[in-house]
Every structure is written in structure tokens, then in C-alpha cells.
Fold this protein.
Amino acid sequence: MNRDWFARTQPETDGKVEMLRRYPPVMFIDAHEMGGSNNFFFPPNADPIYHEITDQAVSWINGLYGPAMQREFDERGIPYFNYDVYDLFYMGYGDTVPATGFGAAGMTYEKSNRDAASQRVAQQYLTQWTSLSEAASRKLDILDGWHDGWVEAQRQGAAGELEPNEVVQPENTVQDPVPDITVRQYFIRAGDRDKRDEVRALVRRLQRMDVEVRRLTRGATVDDFTPYGRETRRARFQRGDYVISMNQRQKHWVQAMLNEDTYTPFPYFYDVTGWSQPLLFNVEGGYSSKRFQGASEAVRPAAVAKAAHHGRQPSIALYSMSQQFSRGRESAGWLRFQLDQWGLRYRDVTAEDIKAGGLRGADVLLVPDGYATIDPDFPEDPYGLGDLGPEGQEAIGDWVKRGGRYVGWLDGAVLASAIGISSAELSPADAISSPGALFRAELDRHSPLAEGVGRYAYPFWDSRYVMAADDDVTAMAFPRWGTEAFYVSGFAEGEEALSETALIADERSGRGRTVAFSHEPNFRAFTTGTQKVLANAILGRNPRHGHRGQGRAAARVSARRLRAPHSAVRLVVDSRGAAAARAILRAQGLKARAVRTPGRVSFSIANRADESGDEAVWARELAGALQRGRVPVVMFRAP
């Protein structure tokens, strides 16, 4: 739920945001606990900071509340840290949304969970009381500044100005500036019948953060329209299309939600870097820089009916691997939530169930992410192939050959190749650095997976696997790098290695079918555009001319050789800093797999610092050591 603040899929999050709409804050504290040493985090945050978070909010966070808490903690001898781990970038946190959407000083506080409960409560109370006291003592100045922030936002929007990128840590410099462009309004096309629900949901999401959305009452021509990820051109819009002006008090939120790119200023990532709403919903749109004079009317609050499946209900089995680790637990949890939203019934099956004939009567087997193959550093951990054993693997293979439909993604796709029911060959994406961005992908227009989706979709991709598959079975692929069609919203480096590689392999296996995704199609249950592709994989028709991929034996061998560290931390450095990075990793006793590419060295660092194997509590020390050692970091991504 701490990543759900713009999507509001969960009722708890939705209730919190609705409360803020009713009582807009000038300060908002999101108080947490963390693993690790006995200390406390409060701002200043680590870089990066999202560019549309106002200077006023950042000055309150870093110049008012942070110093006040430092004084209190210093006086009492309480250990704390700042400028590390917790950034202010991803627009789904409980600090960035209050800051960007409400103009508040949005702050995350984190207390180590190793201290006694009484001490943890006392220190949380101390930070909250200190913050409230500072706010109360400067009430009039804060309210004046809050008012001025809204006035300035509307002025910027009228002028089409974007806030520049900045960094706050003294040793950092901006590495990716916000481009010198003018953005006065965004447009969303509404003419695609297959996308009506998605457009309505997008409009509603904007309105529920008090954004004014207008609908064209007559067709209009825009001379300087820039579609997402394409060159500026002349475009015609129809009556009923939507226009969202930046000339409103919610200018910062409009840019945060409808942006073409997030323009990451500094390459440290605590979360993902791509969340543009039109791309997530896979609807057509873009922006223009000149003042739009077309006729329009304000849109009344939109209502969205709950999506539901109408038609034959298939018998669905769900096999979730590695439930003790967040990778398997989250992917399966997102899936269960989405199946409920669609009104699809399912039953969970375990490896033991599958061995005992538990797939009998099932039409579809869903296998979300987890761990399919063994981690050599921790061979005792459960994993898909090992849990299933030869008997369970054979049971899945026989079930597919008799007519079953296997749908798996990420390590669910690895499992399919390892069993021998998919020819997709997946390899580690060590040469590509992306902590989570939206990439444009092209669908095979003849594939049933493309029904209602269109020619393109925007998968969420996060540097896990590169998929190779025969053209005959490739249902979705990256466009050729260097063409206008290849486009990334968010941070990526080395993405040229993805050129024309597969994202989905859809193939016949006996009388059955295997659909393998190299990405998470249902990330956090808010990647609506690729959810439709997943729904087609579960419910849609079989391909008219199904093909059997070649090279299954090679894919099987390759899949079984994959070795993926649990919840790995990704570090990419300029090759000049590789030796220094290796020395720091050795000094901290960290195991890492290194891959050298032209000008870069990528480290995949095994994460097993606590009993769960999930939270990289040591990443704080590593990030600090890299900065002190002046290692030229290209990307640092902690789970």
C-alpha cells in the first residue's frame, strides 16, 4: 500500500487520499519501521527528487523540519541518518503524493524495528511532536507559502513551464536535466471503442485529485502536437476528445501523471521510474506547447463500472512459487487481486497438488513470478523446479499436451522453458540498466493477445530477462532500436540490446498452448494496458494457426542454467570505477556477479542480509560507501 498512492487500488489508500482532499495538508508524515541497525531516518531525503515537487515543499522538508529533528536527536544522543536510501521521486509514495498533489511537506520517517516497542513509539512520537511544533510556531509563514505555491503553480502552467531537475545531496550533480520544452496542455484521444473504459478510468483518476478535465465540443486542429514518444506534428482531434490544461492549480500533479518522461535527475533508485498514466492505460495522447483555443466544456465527475468477465468461466488453477519471498508473494498477490476484480474464480494449487493430479479439470494454469531455478548461493531455498521434481514437471507437461493452457511470466516463463513446454529462451538482462520503466512494444496484429489492445502496448520492464523466440511464436516484441517506434518512459541505459527481442512467446504444445511473458503484465495491479493482454491470454481464443517454437531442447537447458540471486541489488558503474566498486563490495563482504559491457560494469549483488532475504538493509551502507569513494555510478537499484 505504500506504492499505491496514485493508483489507489486498495480501499485503505483510497480512504487516506480522500481524507487529504477534504483536509488538505501543509505537512504530512508517513511513519514507518525498517529493518537494520538501531537508528532513525528522517529527511533530508536521498536524491533523486521528482522535479515537480515544489521548491517550497523541499525547503520546508530540508530547511525546517529536518534541522529541527536533528537538533532534538543530537541533544538526546539518538542515532539517525539522512540523505540515504529513501528518495522523493516515485509518484506513488505517502510523501511524494502529499507533496505534489497537495503542496505539503511530505515526509517519510523510518525507525529500526530492532529496538524495544516502547523506544520505537517514543522516538516516533518525538519526531511527530517536533514536526507539529515547528509547523505551529511558523503557522502564518507556512500558510502564506502554501498559498503562494498554488499561485505559482498556475502561473507556471499558463506559461507552460516545467520545474527543473535539482539535487539536494552536496556531492551530487544533476545528470539528466528536464528538457527545455513548453507544455501547456495534454490531450487524450477518446475515439477508440476498445479503450473507452480505460479513458474513463484515466479521467476519473485525474478528477479524483481535483484536476479539471475538459472535453472538446467541436473538432480542432493542433499544429504542434507531440504524441507520446514521437516527433511533433500537426494533428486533428475530434469532438469528445479530452484536453487537460496545465493552467490550473494542480499543474504539478497534471505533469506528474501525464508526463512523457520522468527525467530522472540522479541514478539512485528506491523504486520505479516510469508511471505515465496514458501509457499505463495504453491510450493515445500527448501534449502541445501553444495555447489551445478550441471549444470545450468541463467534464462532470466520471464513474467507472467495475470490470467483470462476461462469458464462459474457465477453470483456473494458480501455482505460486517461492511464497516466503516477496518476489513470489507480490506477483501472486497482484494476480489474485486482479482476478477478483475481473470476477474470475480460481483455485490455488501447490507443487504437491500438481504431483497428485491437481490439474485435472483445469483449463488454464497461471504461474506468476517467483524463483523457478536454484540460487547457487542458497541451495536450500525452495524453488519451482525443485519443489515440483520430475513428477510435477511431467504432470504439467502432460496436462498442456492434452489441451491445457499454461500462462506464466518472468520466472513462470522460465519454468515453462525448463519443463520443455516453451521454446522461449530467457537470459539475464545484465547489459541493460532499468529499475522499472515503461517501454513501447509492438503486438502481432494477427495474435488473439492483441484483441482490444491495438498495435502497441507499454509493458513495465525492470532489467530481469531478455527473451529470444522464433518469429512465428512472438506475439509481442520491442521495436527496432533507433526507430521512432522504440521509446522508453523512465530511466534506461543499454536499452539498444532489447532491439527486436521478444516480450511474449505464444505457442502450441501438443493440443495445448503456452503463453510466456518476459515481464510482469500486472505490476502492482495498475498496469492496465498490459492487464488486457494478460486477460486475452487467460480468456481469449487460441491462435488460428498455432505454431510450435523451435529449439525447445536448447531453451530447456538454458532455463535450467539460470541463476538469479534473491532480490538482488543492481549496481552499474562506469568502467573507470569498476575496481573501486569491487573493493567496496569485498570490504562489505558482499557477493556479486559482474558483467562487463562497453564502458560499463554491471554488478548483481546477492541479497541475504536478514532472515527473509527480501529487504536489502545493508544497501544504506553500500550507497554511502560508493558516494564517499566517488565511484562513478550509472545506476543503483535497491529492492
Remarks:
- The chain has 16 helices and 30 strands.
- The CA atoms of residues 471 and 502 lie 9 Å apart.
